[in-house]
Amino acid sequence: MRIILGVILVFVVSGEEETTHVNGFLGESVLLPCNCTDKEEFEWQMEFPKLQSVYNKTTSEFDGRYQGRAKISENNNCSILLTNITASDQGRYKCILSPGIYERHFVQLHISASYNICQKSDKTNGDIGLKEFHCYVHGRYGEAEIQWNLTGQLLTNSTTTNITYQTNTHSASTGLYHFNSTLITKLNVTSEPTCHVTAKNISTHISHDCVAVSDLLTSVGIPEQKHVIMRYFKLIPIVLVLGFSLVLWRRWKFS
Fold first, then answer.
1. Euclidean distance between CA atoms 114 and 244, whole angstroms
2. Is residue 2 part of a domain?
3. Is the CB of residue 139 less than 8 Å from the CB of residue 116?
C-alpha cells in the first residue's frame, strides 16, 4: 500500500495552473521565469500555438530555432533568457520541474512590434477641392499594413477617396522596414484622417516622430512619394469643361 501511495505522489501536480504573462518587443530580449532549486531537473516546452521542445533536460541543450538565441538565466537557474525574439516566439510556454513533486509553471509570452509614424498633409487645392495626406512608417516587422481612419471609421477606396500604398522596403543597414501610403480625398470634413499600423498576429507600439522618419528615409535613399494619381484628379475638371463647351458649341451650330 505504501509503494502505491508513493507512486501516486510523484505525479501530483503542485498548485493551480497559474499563468505568468510576459511582454517582449520584437528583436529584443525577454526573460521567461521559472523558479526552482539546484536539485531539481527541468525542461521547457512551447505548448501553444504549436507543441514543441525548447530545452531538453536529457541533453541539457536548446532545441531547433532556440539554439543560439536562448540561455539559462544566471540569476535564476531554471528561467530562460530569450534573445532576438521573433513573432513566432509568441505563445504559451511550460516549465516542467522534476523529480519529486511534479510541477508545471506556465508563461504566456506576448510580442509587440515598435513602429514610428510621421503623417503630413499637403495644402488643399482650391480649384479642384482635393486634400492630400501622406503617411511614412518604419519598424522592425515587415508583415504589417497602414490603415486610414476618419472619426473612428476605417477609410477605403471610393468615388471620393483614393488610397495608394508603396511596397514595403527593407534596409539592411538599419534592419527596419519602411511603409508609405497616400490618401487623396474630396470629402469636405473639418477633422483630418489619421493613419496607423496593424501587424499580423502581434500587437503594435506606436510613436510619432517626423524628424526620425525623415532622417531614415534620407539615409536609405527612399524619396517621399509623388503620386501620378494627383495629375489624374487635376485633369477631371479640365475634361468636364471641354466636354461642356463642346456640347454648347454643337447646340449653337445646329440651332
1. 53
2. no
3. yes
Looking at 74, 92, 111, which one is the last position of a domain? 111
C-alpha cell at 51: 507543441
CA angle 198, 33, 20 (to 5 degrees): 60
What digits encode the pLDDT tens for the residues 56-101? 888 889 998 999 999 998 776 789 999 999 999 999 999 999 876 6
The pLDDT tens digits of the residues spanning 148-200 come to: 999 889 999 999 999 999 878 999 888 899 999 999 998 877 888 999 999 99
| Inside any domain, residue 1 | no
SS3 per-residue string spanning 183-240: EEECCCCCCCCEEEEEECCCEEEEEECHHHHHHHHHHCCCCCCCCCHHHHHHHHHHHH
